[in-house]
What does this fold into?
Amino acid sequence: MPEGTFCNRRPVNTEEDLKSLLGDKGGAQYYKEMAELEVDVEALKATLQKTLQSRTKTWLEICAHCGMCADSCFLYRVNDRDPKQVPAYKIQSTLGEIVRKKGEVDTAFMMRTMEVAWSQCTCCNRCGMYCPHGIDMGVMFSYLRGLLFSQGFVPWELKIGSGMHRVYGAQMDVTTEDWVETCEWMAEEQQEEWPGLEIPVDKEDADTMYVLNAREPKHYPEDLAEAAILFHLAGENWTVPSEGWEQTSLTMFAGDWAGCKMQVERVYAAVDKLRPKRVVGTECGHAHRATVIEGPYWAGLPSGQTPVPFLHYVEWVSEALTTGKLKIDPEKRIKEPVTLQDSCNYVRNHGLAKHTRIIMSYIAEDFHEMAPNREHNYCCGGGGGFNGIGRYRHQRNVALKTKRDQILATGCKLVVAPCHNCWDAIRDLEEEYEIGIRWSFLKPLLISMVIVPEHLKPQEEDE
Amino acid sequence: MYAFLTGPMLWVALLVFFGGLAARVVWYVRGLSWQLDRVAYGPHLAHGLKGGIHSALKWMLPFGTQSWREQPYFAVAFFLFHIGAVLVPLFLAGHNIILAERFGFSLPVLPMGIADALTVAAIIGLVMIALRRIALTEVRILTTAYDWFILAVSAAPFVTGFVARLHVANYDAWLLAHIITGELLLIVAPFTKLSHIVLFFMSRGQLGMDYAIKRGGYSRGAAFPW
It folds into this structure.
């Protein structure tokens, strides 16, 4: 069978196709079809010809097979040092083989490669830091995911995720109407406690445009309310766009490069339309990666920079604290020992470690670093799409042990995790291993300790 | 034979070596693509190069990076070998006599005792590298016949040269073997993993630029904490 109904080389572009794919529970039919899906060798060859240039070719060729990358990989360490988990082996036996065979590979090979690409690498990029030649296998795995996606060998959930972005412009089925209603609902709900609080939609020329993660309006609307409260307290002149508000990109996890471009261009279009001075994104690592770090390239901007400055939420908070826009009540700082999760996507890959340290210095009295930390920190265990793939749930749960042990070693019972994927992974590791910890985004912590300026306090009712 | 090997053949070997490696550099740089690599090299060149140079220098410094510090055995083996591998061929008195005779110029020369010590250190480094390749499962799984070939090609000029230098066996035969294996190394370098002689700088420089330009260099500074 050349192509299946669900599993094929075509991305999902219509609501109808998306719903029927969702109807295939757990991808049962999807994976059956994949086992029969033929590799389009000619197309694969052509893609390699066009996109495999000197950087990647050189990486594959000069790898000295020294194995220094082995210990840098948390998946190698946590899987009993299985040599098949050595990063160099993982990439050489997958992408390396495809290149050596000039694309002449079969279905069984592609299915194995899919498993390696999504269950043995989270694209955390740590191995690249430990390779003497500077071979970044995370970057290559991301490239490999693109090849696999173009051939239809992608985990079911990520095919859906890519389809969601293509159909709804968001990783979940949140329409423009749903979104705008959620904004109105959250603003109304908060107005009693926070008089004058607004969630201004499509306000032009604001100082700050806020973009976020679709699961916030979909499942955790209070997160949006918290963002609004903090902007309100900081006196921020802000807005959210009615379109282009979704900052995440499951298309990136899926290797759907055309989808990535569509996704980020929606956000940039909102910038064009509303002309904010800058954009602030929510507490999400991969959303920042997709919109701020990789996004400009997908959108074809030769400067490699976003159209206006884009801040990660931690940058905004650190600025608000240092400039005094948000003031912390010293009595309400976190007294217990607390640790911090460094997200690979904005710490290793965007240098924001100092901002989270500034924040911790304001909000915590007994802050403990994980070891290793900052750029050298380990992935939470669920990055790169790993959290969301049912087929690899067992492998993901094993992967969580790294973070579990890092947290246990700090002795802290509270983990600050300003990243959705990390937050999820830490929640899941508590569920799986029950080590008795709590975890939190920054927003609820800040709200619990920020000093409310007199003029923003609710009016006492005079009776 | 000796005259041919240190005459025309030496010319050929050096031409292939330098010409080939230069071609690899040109090919590498021309193959960089801001869109495919997703690194805006051009608009941020100066800042990027700072990161690239820092990236190469840090790794050339013994124990200069976290990775070297975490793997002291390999770091020692690596630097023992590479220091000798770079210095001895260039600055050995014997090599510079030939340079002066054939090409009319020469480089400063190392005192004999130091050259001997560096050669022995390089051979020890190579033995350590080979042992590690055999002993560690994570290295064994990566190892192919090609890796052993590269190690052998790299070791041969040192071993043969050192045996000749000791005058313990047939000097002329060992010297000939040394010249042949040395020229073999020069000739195969551009076409094999030995091209890392230059591509190390390209690849390390590229990742340094990548981090400096795109992955946080404007927040943490051009120097990445390798």
